[in-house]
Amino acid sequence: MDKVDLLSLNPDELEQVLSELGEPKFRAKQLFGWLHKGVAPEEMRNLPAGLRTRIAENFLTNPVRILEEKVSKLDGTRKFLYALEDGNLIEGVLMRYHYGNTLCLSTQVGCRMGCRFCASTLEGCVRNLTAGEMLGQILCANRKLAEEGERVGNVVLMGSGEPLDNYDNVVRFLRLLHHPDGVCIGMRSVSLSTCGLVPQMLAFAEENLPVTLSLSLHAPDDEIRRSLMPVANRYSMDEVLCACRNYVKKTGRRVIFEYALIHGVNSLPEHARALAGKLRNLQCHVNLIPLNDVPERGLKGVSEKEIDRFRQALEEAGISVTRRREMGDDIDGACGQLRRHYLKQSGENRVTGEEQA
Ligand code: SAH
User: Fold this and answer.
1) 195 among known catalytic residues
2) What global pTM score does this model have?
3) Other CB atoms within 10 Å distance of the CB of residue 144
4) What is the average pLDDT value for the chain, to the nearest integer?
5) What structural domains and CATH numbers belong to the chain?
6) Cα(30)–Cα(37) distance, rounded to whole angstroms?
7) Ligand 1, atom 12: nearest CA belongs to which residue?
8) Whose CB has fewer CB within 10 Å in the chain, the N or C terminal residue?
9) 70 and 79 in contact (C-beta within 8 Å)?
């Protein structure tokens, strides 16, 4: 049977596990603190030696490890390829801003949303990540950053996977993330990006987890959106925007709309004007992303001039807009591509025991 992943458990659940091992309640707080520092059982100094051994032998404490790392010479961005306990691979990006370190996390191995421009979804979804595997990505990055006396300050759920398609584990992860005895990252420092799963968006607004919601819109109308994103066949833009308005009302936070500009598809000033019409009276901000070419799908990005024209048209219509800064241009392209390159090279979907060692 698989070992229980202790990093996914909250202090109450740890208390339960420890009581089954005949340990007193107060050990739960100690253990929780150590786990979230990424400390191996052998080094959990204030736990009795016998307990440390039992934890090391019978439980999983550190479910993620870095298999490969690339550092950008341009801006210090780091791209990590992580290996999970079962050999599956995920990836993430650490961005170094003047205000701190932002880590982009994956929430699933692959993705089943099928967006045409996205490399993460080309082979579908292999499985959901556990809460511990999401936290584990932060612990890996924190270990790297500790060498420079730094840590992860902001988290964006924008790596591989659709966070709201892994709802329970993501909510569990967010509650663990802001626990004062753990990594302790506040919800205001977290962004969750979704392709727009309406029922989950409505449920999430009730969780009292006021993270910034990023909505991958990428189109000014249903027709174009449906040509890019299969999820748009399930929920209309009106339904998605209504769920966004609800999120703003419930959390008081503005919504960020992600819009990847794709040559010949959605990048004309008339598209910008139509978009502005849809976003009227919505407390929001638009983030323009130059598309990272996905040759497998024949989609191309746009020129600087086209980006400027689009931005200007939005601004003239009174919409707050920025162009997303590209980071780590020299180390990789779109999300999901490092994993794909690795899988192509090795001809395998997972890493073998040998590579993992
Ligand atoms: N499933 C979530 C989060 C992961 S994708 C979502 O859909 O939002 C993170 C962001 O990267 C999304 O806005 C997604 O649409 C965008 N993206 C994916 N592939 C891209 C590409 N080739 N170029 C630019 N942005 C891309």
Assistant:
1) no
2) 0.94
3) 18
4) 92
5) 4-59 (1.10.150.530), 64-356 (3.20.20.70)
6) 11
7) 216
8) N
9) yes
